[in-house]
From TrEMBL:
Record's comment describing the protein's domains: A Gly-cisPro motif from one monomer fits into the active site of the other monomer to allow specific chiral rejection of L-amino acids.
Gene3D superfamilies found in the cross-reference section: D-tyrosyl-tRNA(Tyr) deacylase
Protein name: D-aminoacyl-tRNA deacylase
Enzyme Commission no: 3.1.1.96, 3.1.1.-
The species this protein was found in: Janibacter melonis
Pfam families: Tyr_Deacylase (PF02580)
């Protein structure tokens, strides 16, 4: 599983001119699922999203996680994170899990964050989405969690 995290002041996702998810300060998590991703990869990804120390609250010392600051997370499925562009000019999507496999995995990431008490908004799986965000920093982190049993 590959996740791109971006620290934001706010973010929203629209589908057909309708806002389907919006957050205030927190993280946008673009989540790409590959073949073999399952509960172990979900648990590791949820832990990383919740616990990475990417925030320095004003007037407070030290760095804090989205969980510690009470921030929110906008989870958006992003199969294009697994594009292979090593050959030619057309990306290959073979490493991305198909929709019926990926959709429940992305949903499990959102649910896992909610179980930790984090406010979560989501996009709409498989839809053409417009993601708008106000970056904070900018801070952008790539979290790669290889499927269990694959070479790291």
């Amino acid at each position: 599983m590959r996740t791109v995290l971006q620290r934001v002041s706010s973010a929203q996702v629209r589908v057909d001119d309708e806002v389907v998810g919006a957050i205030g300060p927190g993280l946008v998590a673009l989540v790409g699922v590959t073949h073999g991703d399952g509960p172990d990869e979900v648990a590791t990804t949820v832990r990383k999203i919740a616990e990475l120390r990417l925030f320095t609250p004003e007037g407070e010392g030290g760095e804090r996680s989205v969980e510690e600051t009470g921030g929110e997370v906008l989870v958006v499925s992003q199969f294009t994170l697994h594009a292979d562009v090593r050959k030619g000019r057309r990306p290959s999507w073979g490493a991305a899990a198909p929709g019926p496999v990926a959709e429940p995995v992305v949903a499990a990431v959102a649910d896992g964050l909610r179980e930790r008490g984090i406010g979560v908004a989501t996009g709409r799986f498989g839809a053409m989405m417009e993601v708008a965000l106000v970056g904070d920093g900018p801070v952008t982190i790539v979290v790669d969690v290889p499927p269990v049993g694959s070479p790291a």
